[in-house]
Design goal:
Layout: H1 3-20, H2 48-51, E1 67-74, E2 78-86, H3 90-110, E3 123-134, E4 137-147, E5 155-164, E6 169-171, H4 173-176, H5 181-195, H6 206-213, E7 222-224, E8 228-232, E9 247-251, H7 252-255, H8 263-267, H9 270-274, H10 284-288, E10 303-309, H11 314-327, E11 332-335, H12 337-340, H13 344-352, E12 356-359, H14 372-387, H15 406-411, E13 416-417, E14 421-422, H16 425-428, H17 431-441, E15 447-451, H18 455-469, E16 473-475, H19 477-483, E17 493-494
Parallel strand pairs: 2-3, 10-11, 10-15, 10-16, 11-12, 13-17, 14-15
Antiparallel strand pairs: 1-2, 3-4, 4-5, 5-6, 7-8, 8-9
């Protein structure tokens, strides 16, 4: 490819990204004072291999600060699944809320004229994040992806902010690097591309790299980890768009001549001790050991399966579990893998009290729109995240947005669980409307869809669960099909005890 055609490709890509707006959003990176604030950390240590996985491969090792919160909404033409950290500080969490709001508002504004031919063809925004600590420095990086059927490929982007947690001061590249550092960074990043099996072919055109490096803010997107500095580069600016958002990890040793900060301060581990997250006094392992057994479901009596998506969210999920426990009922919780590590006690309680814990993928991406790598991350990643807390991995999966195709059926190693009664609790946010939807539609063998991230759903369950228990056995999806003599098999789609495809 000659320089002129490469420049055209770069300009087209850059204009498209700018036009979508979503990809130029500023992500939140927030900071708290280590002496006065308590961050909730991932329960597992970081790993160099996990840090190198890139966008949407986020695991607990790349979420070192904060507990996950989610905003998941379905509208007629659009849907979004936005995940972000809650740090427990009013100012920091307010800044995160502002950033999250801007992601969503920009997406909805950009897609205001889009009309989805069907619910399966909604435009979808997915936002996930990484969070790191390096001594007193805290970084949060949001990965932003937008897709709609008219686009050949999803649009992706990353932006970062970094803060000094001791005084809340915002830090930029000028705070971390000194001297004539830009030529050195250009050389180190160029060498990284040329030596990488993933990027080598895309970095063959030195002119394109030089043009990208000439951008004033080319090194402004970065996060500090315990190992070094992770740089994120806009799609199309340094490499062809097929390479997505290039990610380059440079060690503190490589950067030592140009670091304005003391390397030992950035790798100091004492700060981690004051940030350690805690479980409830009982602890996850003790909860798991209390799992109930010996339950009998009468196949001759009416039964329904209540199901809850997108959790866990402790303040909502625990209320639902309380109501189920009062009547001896069971339910199925389709959990997001990226929320599991933040709320292990709630997940363990679901399991310990005899409920079915199943997968709703890792970060709520539409599976038919995933490429092979993303598909594996969404399905296997959720299984691994849940399996790291509970004994064994999930035995069923509910596809986000109810979206599946033949490829989904073939590749997911679990039965796909849909529903026969949709309460639309996500839409109404009204307990009375949810109660009415169930009362008017439920019958023996139904699977009822709700979401345990909305307080109004818990409000509805305060009434519904006791009421339903008078006429129906409240069972898990697994119990429902076992009692009806229907095997749960991978490759099949289950809507109710009456409808299996």
């Amino acid at each position: 490819m000659n320089r002129k055609s490469a420049k055209k490709r770069q300009n087209r890509g850059a204009k498209r990204v700018a036009g979508l707006g979503v990809l130029s959003l500023l992500l939140a990176a927030l900071v708290l004072s280590l002496n006065s604030l308590a961050f909730a950390l991932s329960p597992r240590p970081s790993s160099d291999e996990q840090l190198a996985q890139g966008p949407f491969a986020a695991r607990e090792e790349t979420r070192q600060v904060g507990k996950i919160r989610s905003k998941i909404e379905y509208q007629e033409n659009t849907a979004y699944s936005v995940h972000y950290p809650h740090l427990g500080n009013e100012a920091a969490d307010g800044a995160i809320a502002e950033a999250v709001g801007s992601f969503i508002d920009t997406f909805l504004s950009d897609l205001a004229d889009y009309r989805a031919p069907s619910p399966q063809e909604r435009a979808i925004l997915t936002v996930d994040y990484e969070s790191y600590r390096a001594g007193p420095v805290v970084s949060v990086a949001f990965h932003i992806e937008m897709s709609e059927p008219n686009m050949a490929h999803p649009s992706t982007g990353v932006e970062t902010l970094v803060f000094d947690s001791r005084d809340g001061r915002r830090l930029g590249e000028g705070d971390f690097f000194q001297g004539d550092y830009r030529p050195a960074l250009e050389q180190l990043v160029g060498d990284f591309f040329r030596e990488s099996d993933d990027y080598r072919q895309g970095a063959e055109d030195a002119d394109i790299l030089a043009e990208g490096f000439a951008q004033e803010d080319i090194f402004s997107r970065f996060a500090l980890t315990a190992q070094g500095v992770r740089f994120y580069f806009p799609r199309y600016l340094l490499l062809p768009g097929a390479y997505g958002v290039p990610v380059v990890d440079l060690s503190y040793d490589q950067l030592k001549p140009y670091l304005a900060w003391d390397r030992d301060e950035l790798t100091e581990k004492e700060s981690a001790k004051s940030l350690a997250g805690t479980l409830s006094p009982m602890g996850t392992s003790a909860l798991v050991e209390q799992v109930k057994t010996g339950r009998y479901v009468d196949p001759n009596k009416p039964m329904i399966a209540l199901t809850f998506d997108d959790g866990p969210r402790p303040d909502v999920t625990d209320r639902i579990l309380d109501r189920l426990g009062e009547v001896g009922g069971r339910a199925t919780f389709f959990v997001l893998g990226n929320r599991a590590g933040s709320y292990p006690d709630t997940l363990a309680r679901e399991y310990a009290e005899g409920h079915m814990v199943a997968s709703h993928t890792y970060s709520h991406k539409s599976l038919p729109k995933c490429d092979e790598g993303e598909f594996s991350q969404q399905v296997q990643g959720a299984d691994e995240a849940i399996g790291a807390i509970l004994p064994g991995q999930p035995k069923a999966l509910r596809p986000p947005y109810g979206a599946y195709d033949d490829t989904t059926r073939e590749k997911v190693p679990h039965p796909l669980i849909m529903w026969s009664v949709d309460t639309l609790d996500w839409k109404s946010r009204n307990a009375d409307a949810v109660i009415r939807a169930v009362r008017q539609n439920v019958r023996d063998g139904d699977i009822v869809l709700m979401h345990d991230i909305h307080p109004t759903t818990a409000d509805a369950c305060d009434t519904l669960i006791a009421e339903l228990a008078k006429d129906y056995q409240l069972v898990t999806v697994e119990e429902l099909y076992r009692a009806k003599g229907i095997p749960l098999e991978a490759g099949k789609v289950y809507f109710s005890a009456r409808t299996v495809r």
